[in-house]
Amino acid sequence: MAGDLKISRRDFINGIALGAVAGATLNPAEVLAAAARGGGYPPSLTGLRGAHAGSFEVAHAVSLAGAQFARPQRQTESIYDLVVIGGGLSGLAAAFRYRQRTGESAKILVLDNHDDFGGHSKRNEFDVDGHKLIGYGGGQSYPDLSTSPVFPEDALEEVLSYRLPIGNVAVSDSERVFFTVHPEARPKGNKLLEFIDGASVPFPDGTSQQNLFDTVLGVAIDRNNRLWTIDHGNHGMRAARLLAFDLETGELVHDQRFAREIAPLGSFLQDLQVSADGRTVVIADASFWRKQPAIIVYDIESASARRVLESHRSVSAEDYVIKNSGRTMSFAGGVVSLRGGVDGIALDDEWLYFAALSGSSLYRVRLSDIRDPRAPDSQIAARVESLGPKPLSDGLSVDLDGRVYITDIEHNAIARLDNDLELLTLISSKAVRWPDALSFGPGGWLYVADSALGGVILQSKEHIKAQGPYKIYRFQPGAEGTPGQ
Q1: E strand or H helix at 382
Q2: DSSP letters along 283-297, please?
């Protein structure tokens, strides 16, 4: 039957779901027959699959939970001439080439953890309200939500440059500028610095850096003039650590190492904010490897912490592939794509605003709800509010009027969600390669840390050094915010 079908190269490459492994909804004959009848366009037959349920649980169990599986006690399948691991285009091409060389009698087994072939080249198309949406096997492209910028590019001022990628930034009410060196650069020297008279100086000093910091990233300043940092302990392989320094004296005034139940293996504690009353620290766990993102609520006085909203849709990554500065953020031949859970967070007197790096919406929940130790997680989840669409983003901030500022990592821009929920692009510049963290300073300045992360992840130290320097910028968005937040 299949030999009589006329299937174009486009339909083949774009991914008819052939059910290459057990458990597929349709077998190859059924899919091809449906296409031949003219009743279905092949890419639309099975919907967007991506990393569907059933395709990743075993690998995660092995890598993150240390699961072990018994060896087969008997042979259950036939003998094969060739076994190919991976049913993407490379795997299919290898199988095809082998059969070309050895003849039609070659017995070949192609294994894949998904229920169809095509890998990242697979494409599905959907018609929604008259618009065609395209989704890829490894994730789908994100729609462009940007608008014409409110401010010209020359409104952006350079504050400082540094030889290594910058992580986060915090600016005090006296205009002291602090920043971390991004852990993805694998720095060996200073990791938290202050910019003083044109020079980047280690804070609190050079001698204590190795003892204080491992993979420090998040930094914020509270209204009590304390500088807070969060260190994820290399994705939870070591203890995550929360520190606070008195900015008047430079002394360490708070030191908390989180237990495994708060910062488990595979966690990524990387952004933090402090409540206006100085009682609570809120931390985002993006959970890049563990894939169980959450918000951590830490009570300073009792030194007690709690994970809330773990794996809730509001904190979880969606199936989007990030494109930054012309590069798709996929690695190892498309096997791994950068997708992160809750990343940016912002606090005002009443609300916590938060969003996933690879998420499509901005959310908020009342601070009083998440810091009530008696509130069950189900109650907190029920009180989460969606504020509407946002760009794929990293850092957040909020002004004194409750408007939320959002980095747009795909369009080198800063956006703002106004009180009427209108999303506006404020400023855009190709000079800002990856707008990472935001911090208000005094005088209505909003500071932007450019980590250039798209050219840093999994790159050699030589490459990272060659792409420098890395910079912090600022501009005036026309509103005041709380310095350090």
Answers
A1: helix 377-382
A2: EEE--TTT---EEEE
Give the distance from CA 91 to its chain's centroid.
Answer: 28
Question: DSSP letters of 173-204?
Answer: TT--EEEEEPGGG--SS--EEEEETTEEEESS
3-state class of 222 per DSSP? coil
**Cβ neighbours of residue 385 under 8 Å, at least 6 residues apart?**
363, 364, 365
Of 14-23, 168-177, 237-246, the one with minimum mean pLDDT is 14-23
Distance, in Å, from the CA atom of 344 to the CA atom of 393, rounded to the nearest integer, reads 8
What's the predicted TM-score (pTM) here? 0.76
Q: 271 near 345, Cβ under 8 Å?
A: yes
What average pLDDT score do residues 173-190 get?
96
The answer to whether 475 touches 151, Cβ cutoff 8 Å, is: yes
The CA distance from 237 to 95, in Å, is: 39
Percent of the chain surpassing pLDDT 90: 67
Tokens of 119: 């890998």
Residues for the chain: how many in total? Answer: 485
**Both tokens assigned to 453:** 């992360």
Tokens for 385, please give them.
């509010």
Give the lowest-confidence range in 81-95, 207-221, 260-274, 421-435: 81-95
Question: Phi/psi zone of residue 388: left (φ > 0), alpha (ψ -120 to 50 degrees), beta?
Answer: left
How much is the pLDDT for 73?
73
Structure tokens at 150: 């409110």
Q: How far apart are CA 140 and CA 130, in angstroms?
A: 18
pLDDT tens digit sequence for 442-468: 999 999 999 999 999 888 999 999 999
Cα–Cα distance between 451 and 457 in angstroms, integer?
10
The residues that bridge with 420 in the sheet, in sequence order, are none
In angstroms, the CA 428 to CA 412 distance is: 6
φ/ψ of 12, rounded to 5, equals: -65, -50
Q: Is 257 exposed, middle or buried (0-12, 13-18, 19+ CB in 10 A)?
A: middle
Q: How far is CA 364 from CA 80, 126, 154, 367, in A?
A: 55, 30, 33, 9
